[in-house]
Amino acid sequence: MTLPRILLAATLPLLGIGIAVARGKKAVEADVPVPVPAVVTEPAPVPPAEPAPSLFPAGLPVVIDSLPPGVASLSAQSCNACHWTAHDTWETSAHAVAWADPLYQAALRSAGNSTTCLSCHLPVAAQHDRLANGYIDGDLSRPRLEANASFDATLMSEGVSCVACHVREGKVLGTYASDNAPHPLVKSEELSSSALCATCHQLSWPEADRPFYDTYGEWEASAYAKAGVDCLDCHMAPVAGVSQPGVKGTVNAHVSATGLDRALTTLVTLPGASLQRGQAVPVTVTLLNSGAGHSVPTGNPFKKYAIEVVLLDAAGKELAPPQGFSLSRTVDSTPPWRTTHDDRLRAGDKREWTGTLTPNAKGLAGAGALVVRARRDASVTELRRIPIDIR
Ligand code: HEC
Ligand code: HEC
Ligand code: HEC
Ligand code: HEC
Ligand code: HEC
Predict the structure, then answer these.
(1) For ligand 4, atom 28: residue with the closest CA
(2) Residue 378: CB partners within 8 Å, gap ≥ 6?
(3) Mean pLDDT score of the chain, rounded to an integer?
């Protein structure tokens, strides 16, 4: 057994003599017995780390034409054999349905199946049955399309799949390099950065006043970027209590939508905890974007939250029509989609709304509630529920 290095380091300075030994002076100069330190072998020189291939050297779509040895196919299912937590969290995320999503498919059709809509939703060249070989008169809306000999229908169905972020030049890109993985593994700084996400979550059209997708830009301008809290910290949190056989690092969610209840703090001001049917009550609702590292909503400008303030009676029936406000952005209906209106909540910002609710005199008395909720298309998130005694 070698002498623990920590012990050696701690002992040497105490023995002036030891230091002399260490400096190469003759040990015989000492008149006390000299403890002979165990020989410390220098660690074998570490070969310089292999540089990781860059993720999107020529933009999107990226050409991935060699399969890493040890991996059965480019499909996510091949990685599932060993990395099932990454696989299962990915499978239920928007990334896995980036192509199959009916909402996207409908929008794609109404955009005339424009090739400009494909790159981020199908980031790998093999996911395209046809590829643009130049543009007629340099016009990006008139691509010269040719059949793609390397088209892979399975990979197409997987949208933003594992290989889009992890496989380049026959190697797997990870958070560290290792010779012990069943596939070549190199460390990529680029992988673990918000810049990876920006590849698809930031988009500017030429001549537009503002980026069309601006999630990265919003984050970059926020206090989170300054504090070093990046996209991954909030959207790829480690999965508690899970480890992966043979993998040294943490296992992270791949990639989760965190939800509005995490993004917003909802404060309510009321004159009291009870109210009289038929009598008007002033209500103030303050929304703070205390938890999203970008605007709420962020991303594509067709997202809108309707914030509703509603009084419910003891039976859960609405005692007054919902009132409220919206968080949204609107853009022109044609390129370059100039922004016409934007009242979304930026990171760290707050919005205060004051209104008057008059509970229906015929409503049911008893244990009612004031509810603040957010509606987006068909989904409703309850942000705050205050119990109220209805008299
Ligand atoms: C047969 C099992 C197996 C298959 C299949 C496999 N891997 Fe791995 N992978 C491993 C093991 C084991 C390690 C850990 C090696 C180590 O720590 O030395 C690893 C490491 C990794 C890492 C680095 C871990 C980190 O924390 O950064 C990534 C990323 C990765 N694999 C991605 C993939 C992807 C993507 C696929 C599919 C294309 C895949 N792997 C297929 C077993 C597998
Ligand atoms: C190759 C392109 C691409 C990259 C890289 C990418 N995304 Fe996405 N992301 C998409 C697309 C496309 C969608 C929307 C899919 C849909 O719903 O149609 C999406 C959706 C999302 C959503 C919505 C999740 C949900 O379930 O509603 C989140 C959150 C997200 N991405 C975060 C990230 C983060 C964080 C990163 C960086 C680690 C990242 N993305 C990298 C293309 C990408
Ligand atoms: C401080 C934590 C935090 C950081 C940092 C952060 N996000 Fe988010 N993100 C959230 C929360 C919370 C939501 C939920 C808000 C919502 O549903 O509208 C969200 C929502 C999203 C959505 C929309 C999902 C949807 O269903 O509409 C996307 C896309 C997204 N984030 C991508 C990113 C990207 C890309 C970055 C880095 C540039 C990033 N986020 C940084 C917390 C964060
Ligand atoms: C949008 C890009 C993206 C996609 C798609 C993606 N990953 Fe990752 N993955 C990452 C990033 C970024 C990290 C590094 C997280 C960090 O720095 O901690 C990562 C980390 C990993 C790790 C290391 C340990 C862990 O679980 O976090 C494994 C293994 C892995 N991914 C496997 C997969 C597999 C398998 C798939 C497909 C089912 C997949 N990834 C899809 C971006 C992606
Ligand atoms: C720069 C990359 C990029 C391009 C190009 C792109 N998208 Fe997206 N798309 C995304 C990302 C990222 C998301 C998800 C998060 C968000 O809403 O910000 C998304 C989400 C969507 C959604 C919402 C899906 C849902 O379930 O909410 C639709 C619809 C959509 N895109 C349609 C289109 C159409 C149509 C085009 C072409 C005009 C297009 N996209 C071009 C990156 C892109």
Answers:
(1) 86
(2) none
(3) 88
> Can you tell me the distance from the alpha carbon of 277 to that of 280, in angstroms, rounded to the nearest whole number?
8
The ligand 4 atom at the shortest distance from the C-alpha of residue 238 is 27
Minimum CA distance residue for ligand 2 atom 9:
95
Work out the average pLDDT over 216-222: 98
Q: Give the residue among 83, 90, 69 at the shortest CA–CA distance from 249.
A: 83
| Band of residue 111 on the pLDDT scale cut at 50, 70, 90 | confident
Structure tokens at 112: 């005339």
Amino acid, single-letter form, for residue 195: A
What six digits make up the tokens of 119? 């790159």
Q: Which band of pLDDT confidence, cut at 50, 70 and 90, is reported for residue 246?
A: confident
Residue 104 in contact with residue 121, Cβ under 8 Å?
yes
Best mutation site among 78, 120, 166, 201 for ligand 4 pocket (most ligand atoms within 8 Å of CB): 166
Residue 178 · residue 185 · CB < 8 Å: yes
Round to whole Å and give the CA distance between 284 and 160: 42
Other Cβ atoms closer than 10 A to 363: 20
Q: Tell me the chain's radius of gyration from C-alpha atoms.
A: 30
Contact 174, 186 (CB under 8 A): yes
For the chain, the straight-line distance linking the first and the last C-alpha, in angstroms and rounded, comes to 81
My answer on whether omega of the bond before 163 falls inside 30° of 0, hence cis, is: no
Question: What tokens were used for 335?
Answer: 């390129």
**225 closest CA partner among 74, 347, 90:** 347
Residues 6+ apart with CB under 8 A from 333: none
Q: Which residue has the tokens 């939800």?
A: 259
How far is Cα 84 from Cα 23, in angstroms, rounded to an integer? 54
Are residues 171 and 68 in contact, defined by beta-carbon separation less than 8 angstroms?
Answer: yes
Q: Is the pLDDT of residue 349 over 50?
A: yes
- Between CA 311 and CA 307 the distance in angstroms is 14
**Which residue reads 């997987």 in tokens?**
158
**Ligand 3 neighbourhood includes 160 CB (under 6 angstroms):** no
Query: How many angstroms separate the alpha carbon of residue 262 from the centre of ligand 3?
Result: 10
